[in-house]
Amino acid sequence: MNTYKKNKIRGKEVTDLGLGNNIFDDNQRVINRDGSFNIKRKGIPFRESFSVYQWLISMSWVKFCCLILITYLVVNIFFATLYYIGGDANFEGIETNNNFDRFLNEFFFSTQTFTTVGYGRINPVGVYSNIISSIESLTGLLSLALATGLLYGRFVKPVAKIIYSDTAVIAPYKDISGLQFRIANKRRDHQMVDVEVDVLLSKIENDKAMFYNLKLEYRKVSFFTTAWTVNHPIDEDSPLSGMTEKDLKDIDAEFFILLKGFDDTFAQVVHSRSSYKYNEIVWGAKFVSLYGKDDDGKTIIELDKISEYYKVALPQLELKTG
Amino acid sequence: MNTYKKNKIRGKEVTDLGLGNNIFDDNQRVINRDGSFNIKRKGIPFRESFSVYQWLISMSWVKFCCLILITYLVVNIFFATLYYIGGDANFEGIETNNNFDRFLNEFFFSTQTFTTVGYGRINPVGVYSNIISSIESLTGLLSLALATGLLYGRFVKPVAKIIYSDTAVIAPYKDISGLQFRIANKRRDHQMVDVEVDVLLSKIENDKAMFYNLKLEYRKVSFFTTAWTVNHPIDEDSPLSGMTEKDLKDIDAEFFILLKGFDDTFAQVVHSRSSYKYNEIVWGAKFVSLYGKDDDGKTIIELDKISEYYKVALPQLELKTG
Amino acid sequence: MNTYKKNKIRGKEVTDLGLGNNIFDDNQRVINRDGSFNIKRKGIPFRESFSVYQWLISMSWVKFCCLILITYLVVNIFFATLYYIGGDANFEGIETNNNFDRFLNEFFFSTQTFTTVGYGRINPVGVYSNIISSIESLTGLLSLALATGLLYGRFVKPVAKIIYSDTAVIAPYKDISGLQFRIANKRRDHQMVDVEVDVLLSKIENDKAMFYNLKLEYRKVSFFTTAWTVNHPIDEDSPLSGMTEKDLKDIDAEFFILLKGFDDTFAQVVHSRSSYKYNEIVWGAKFVSLYGKDDDGKTIIELDKISEYYKVALPQLELKTG
Amino acid sequence: MNTYKKNKIRGKEVTDLGLGNNIFDDNQRVINRDGSFNIKRKGIPFRESFSVYQWLISMSWVKFCCLILITYLVVNIFFATLYYIGGDANFEGIETNNNFDRFLNEFFFSTQTFTTVGYGRINPVGVYSNIISSIESLTGLLSLALATGLLYGRFVKPVAKIIYSDTAVIAPYKDISGLQFRIANKRRDHQMVDVEVDVLLSKIENDKAMFYNLKLEYRKVSFFTTAWTVNHPIDEDSPLSGMTEKDLKDIDAEFFILLKGFDDTFAQVVHSRSSYKYNEIVWGAKFVSLYGKDDDGKTIIELDKISEYYKVALPQLELKTG
Fold first, then answer.
1. Spatial contact of D280 and D170, defined as CB atoms under 8 Å apart
2. Residue C321 near chain D (CB below 8 Å)
């Protein structure tokens, strides 16, 4: 009987979880530390898989402002060209014989129309320019409506900002060991309640990627104000039972973390993801306490220490650093 | 004892699930492939069952833009008529004796008022035109407010874009068979987590439509980044146990699929629906792998192969193609 | 042993569910048919318990439009008065010696400023009028911002529109009876999925109001496209077991219904409430089928028949109409 | 055998729930009565932990209006300065030789541009002033878009307004005692359904803070229209079993309350938090009834009595006031 095998593969097995069960390349992580996925997709036309909304919502503010300015420029050049085509009898207030000056005046008239500021010194008198400008001002209003939605979406996008400790540790826990990592809420004023964490182990087995749910000491906390040390006790049922540091490397282990909770400020459920690769696990270590006293004797929590640990001996023989 | 019957009707039975249990016409699907329902309703006045919001949100962008343009035209003709009725002493800046020209000028003045561009060359001087134009500019602002909400609703409508394989297959699974179909997330950048799938079998039995929940190998995946082969093992408890391809046709089988998951970009739970009719099931087939390597040796997933399968022999005698 | 008592009080008892357990007046329903509550509250200052948002969101469209018009009028009279106080040297374009005419001109100037239409024939030249008008135009913009939110809130308020059958029935069900009522989705285009129903019995017992959860044949349906007959089997464990029509009256029975489901169009969970008082229960009746065929032989569902029933004999002796 | 210990530590223990398990200072509450947390954080740069959105959403309306006015002033002074730098040939309509007057005129022109009111008496003629003003009017529109989102966020922020009784009581309950507190919905028109309550006991044990979930008589009510007396029966399994008033003080007990429910008006799940410190528990008391009759004999509920109680003897010997 292959006891070794039996010791190695335990816990609730999850074969296909949308990640595919082919072999990933060595050292290629599936989930990046910032929660994004590291998988290349092919076969869906760009037009169908691309989401304009996602693109506009997730680009940086600098890029977003540039994009708005460029769009503004392009739209006004477009309408200025239309006005220019209409000829010089179409406007009151443009008194120039220079063609470039006329275009410039029509460009500024266009900006005044698009933003509906409409000073009126330059104003349309012909039917043609009136029609174009009535369409432009409508376009301006609808663009404002769109911008409102986009800015709202960008500004209030409900995302959890969770700090994960740089490494996970294998720490002594009761009579056995535990796989532990530490998380904290980065946001000072966004309280999170009803927070749940799921941890999955991905490993290579017979040239196939397999996934296991790790049982946690606590899956859920009602209040998550400061920091939480998530703990997977490595008991007999754990898929990590009896494994060494080298074993983890051999099976190309990666631990996926999925966190969700209710954010008070957004009044919505928010999510966060991260992962630890086998080489981000410290064997035989405990996290240092985050709690201290300030000058007034009040309890404070020092979040810059979230990744700090000290080495300790592991209680069990089965868990040796390879 | 009617063993045949007993073999045929198993699993948790669901008699009435809002679909009614009358006999549907042969070959009439209940759920279309795009997730819409195929049932005609009667007896509720149009005014009460019609939802303006749903109509405005779900029409195509082309139609929506036309609708806005037409509304803009109609509103301005309406106000221009009101101004016209007021007579020609009401405005400054309209210097014409031609009635059509006056109407045209008042029409353009109306557009300038509605969009609040207000150039001011033409401007109201009489009490009548001032009252009308102050109402029109308010109307314009409120219309903008409405448009903002609508455009936001259209743009950020949180819908899952799921690709379903064209057919489901009856594939060998362990010692038995499994009903399998494949799904993938169409959106490149919208990550989905906590995805759940329910599959229901609808069948005709004694001239009544009955519904059965099918037990899945995995109902839920934490991460759904690429593709997921949903699998219903056809074991002894399955309502499909012992059935042949012809049996499925005889009972007019349709498999309903309901998927829900949390979409990262929308920060909301999204849903998707689809169904497979008995003639969209391939007996004795397996889906081809989606995974390949690109030129750099990196793992890629080829989503255009999502419906591709190859024929295999089924392991069990009970499952014969009719 | 008091068997009668034992027969009468069964099921999971719920003593306090936010409704209080005092005796309600005879025939006073707790929940109105439209889902609103029939309980008077006292002791919280109006200012604290009143919600402006709720008031603005739930008033009729006619009232809402009137409110906007009146606010518009009041705001403009206010600013016109401020302009008037500033004296006649403050504006260009007002050429009148008549005080009322001046006020009228300043009123219209105010509307042009508030809506930001700003024709400019009348325009501020003094510092005083410039300051006031710069504040007014800002006020106008912020009012527009508020109106946008409000109109969005009113327009897309996610409410389930559920039709409940006018009466519930006590119908034969298998060997026993069942308390049944019928519900349908009023909205043509808003699909609902994952719909759950809870039914509570409120009864007077020893001068105290007690509440019982009624066990349903199906609590949840995945798809709710047309109509659903909710059924509470009156088995031995039911608090209704052995009761007669007169018993229900004696205990002042009221059945509370709470429905929730996911609305496809709103992409959100929506709720609906209703209740049946003892005198809205028909003993010994079955609902007629809603299904028919149209001229083309296609299945249709006739929702105007949702409350129609026909009388039948009840299978059990225990359930006699009083 | 240490029976005392065994009596003291019962119930489901929760060691780490994001609150840390260090010793808090005596009398320092963890959760304030208004639901905010009383823990100082350190180590995360202000820029990263500060949330602009949270700050703008949660400040008072008075502060918010001041902030808007000041921003408006600053922005216009900024643009006026830019116009002023451009020199006096850039504008039509400014007829003054006084520099301060020119700046003032340019300031008001700036307000007219930013709010897009654009009267047009003063209007840009030079290229420089045209460019600046076209940027300013765009800035104005985008600011409006942002303000719209913010005002919407402030106005419709979905928060539960729950009144908690000033004190909790230890009241007789069946043969034993119960820890009880009373809650009510402050909002007149916001109906809440599907309300759930969690109560946690925090206590000091061996110099460590430990947390226990308290089992409630009812954790959830379907309807929460008026008031609900939440009750934790102090049975053998309760961590409070056998404790006296002095014991509670010795372990520095604090009871955390987490409430969530679906708010009808916001159509969303809302949360509320509070806590009772050991000195806010009245031993041997019952809450008075909230129900009364008004002049018409209709049942009313008097919410101003929510904290009123009367002293009663406790049924059990184990529970003595210290």
1. no
2. no
